[in-house]
Design brief:
9 helices; nucleotidyltransferase; Cytidylyl_trans; 242 residues; lipopolysaccharide biosynthesis; two-stranded antiparallel ribbon; 24% strand; Nucleotide-diphossugar_trans; alpha/beta
């Protein structure tokens, strides 16, 4: 099984433009993410996929591998699908460019989902973290996921799901972390299928997979890490790096 990692990387970000080129402990965020992913030794190859000459040059000029997107893309899955279409690969792991604290054990759990999937029941695998803080549960920037009894995703939402109508029920809430592992065919299918209403409403690309019947196996991790979405996140990341 050939397994590679793709790191989708846009220069413009609505909440923190240019965040991937910000300094984190003496190197840019995107270099830190790329180097951490390579260092896991879990992948046959690692690429940054970008629409930005600035990011492309930053990676390549420092010894890394990068692919320039040919088309404009709305989401990371589309960007990765275009890049892998003609590559000989079985499984693609999407590591977010703004998560430089890549956790080797969590990525290994994702890869093992496919190594143990002898019946080919899994189209995607992704990570989730148990959360208990009510502010986080109710925060629309925190994406929640609910599961069936086999840990396949039933739905993702920015709303608190399930809704706690009966407060006496002991419900576990899970935050979705945007790290995915895909079968190549699932990615290509996604790329060629139009957006439907659930994805358009919630602005969550993973809902397109569910709307078209793809199966997403969720894997729990206790590693939260720091996703750099704001300047304040970058300050926290630099403190953690030190």
């Amino acid at each position: 099984m050939k397994i590679i990692s793709m790191i989708p990387a846009r220069y413009s970000a609505s909440r923190f433009p240019g965040k991937l080129m910000q300094d984190l402990g003496g190197k840019t965020v995107i270099r830190r993410t790329y180097e951490a992913t390579v260092k896991t030794n879990l992948f046959d190859d690692v690429f940054v996929v970008t629409d930005s000459d600035i990011i492309y040059n930053e990676v390549v000029n420092n010894g890394g591998k990068a692919i320039m997107s040919i088309k404009e893309h709305e989401c990371g899955s589309d960007r990765i699908a275009e890049a892998v279409e003609h590559l000989d690969v079985d499984v693609v792991v999407n590591v977010q460019g703004d998560e430089p604290f890549t956790d080797e054990e969590s990525l290994k759990k994702l890869i093992n989902v496919f190594k143990n999937d002898s019946k080919n029941e899994v189209d995607l695998a992704s990570l989730m973290v148990h959360i208990t803080n009510e502010d986080e549960i109710n925060n629309p920037n925190t994406v929640k996921v609910v599961l069936d009894q086999s840990d396949f995703a039933l739905y993702f939402s920015r709303s608190p799901i399930p809704y706690p109508r009966d407060k006496s029920v002991d419900v576990k809430y899970f935050k979705h972390k945007g790290v995915y592992a895909f079968r190549k065919q699932a990615l290509l299918d996604f790329y060629n299928l139009p957006m439907k209403t659930l994805e358009a409403s919630e602005k969550l690309e993973q809902l397109r997979y569910l709307e078209y019947g793809k199966r997403i196996k969720m894997v729990e991790t206790d590693v939260e890490g720091i996703e750099i979405d704001t300047p304040e996140d970058l300050v926290r990341a630099n403190k953690q790096w030190k």
